[in-house]
Fold this sequence. Notes:
Blueprint: E1 3-10, E2 23-30, E3 37-47, H1 50-53, E4 72-82, E5 92-98, E6 102-106, E7 114-115, H2 131-143, E8 151-155, H3 160-171, E9 176-181, H4 184-192, E10 198-201, H5 207-214, E11 219-224, H6 229-235, E12 238-246, H7 268-271, E13 275-278, H8 288-300, E14 308-312, H9 317-323, E15 332-336
Parallel strand pairs: 8-9, 8-11, 9-10, 11-12, 12-13, 14-15
Antiparallel strand pairs: 1-2, 3-4, 3-6, 3-15, 4-5, 5-7
Helix pairs in contact: 2-3, 2-8
Amino acid sequence: MSKESRQWVLKSRPPGLVGPEHFELKQTSVGEPGEGEILVRTLYLSFDPTQRGWLNEGPGYTDPVAIGAPMFGAGLGQVVKSNDPKFQEGDILNGMMPWQDYALIKDGGLMPLHKVSREHPLTWAFSVFGITTMTAYFGLQEVGQVKEGDVVLISGAAGATGSAVAEIAKIRGASKVIGVAGGPEKCTWIVGEGACDAAIDYKNDDIAARLKELAPDGVNVFYDNTGGPVLDAALANLADRARVVICGGIATGYSSWEMPEGPKNYLFLILKSARMEGFLLFNYMDRFPQAIADIGKWVQQGKLKVHETLLEGLENAPAALQGLFTGKNKGKTILKVADPD
């Protein structure tokens, strides 16, 4: 028997800020699962800035969403019926899912399916145990090579990845963690609720002057989630042999696959014998079990907090994505679609 389902499809490619006007909510029927397929009822959807890039025409690490096709992202779904022997009715699965009430999915692809335990709140699969925390874990330690005594600077420090970077930096012995965020409320939050020792308000502060004040001897590790003016200011205030981790470029809005104008201060990499390197989380998939074990230990010890912005209602999915680019979120943005059985 087919299931009636709401479904968000891409209506037009956004030229700039993504919003509800670029999507259309339709009704569809979801049929019985075929060979290897699983019928799931969507419980939660996860939102990440990288999803904005999937709406652009052009090459990327995944094919762009086609006009008229369902929008998708990481999701949690409960199995209604399964034609995959690895998964049974009632299992809760984490994987790539379309924005709809019911969906037919298969294992494999960009993000293989895996079962989620009910030992912790289900949303933790996206927040503290999700890809943003994993991105912070590998980016800071493997690319940034953070060590005891380092001064660490983080852009996008109120976001899901940035807030986790701050906590892992303190766990690894950083002497000072400086976060960059937009507006007094977020700056207060990253120091009071987060793990930052100091904050720079990119909307109101002189970034370069404030950075020299907070890190007079330079920054040892800069974890960059935004690019833009913050990256330029950081490059001009590096310590000797600093490491710059390029994780994201949310300052561009991801409105095109074309590369934005590069930083003006990149020659400081030569003057400071510094290194700037980008990475993709999927490069470390074989080491996810160790990361999950470490993260779980830190959560149990109270060293790693759970930061979530929880929204509700499938009808609000496009607004949830837009909120990532308008400063609406603190920590991980998650949308509740339904309760599990």
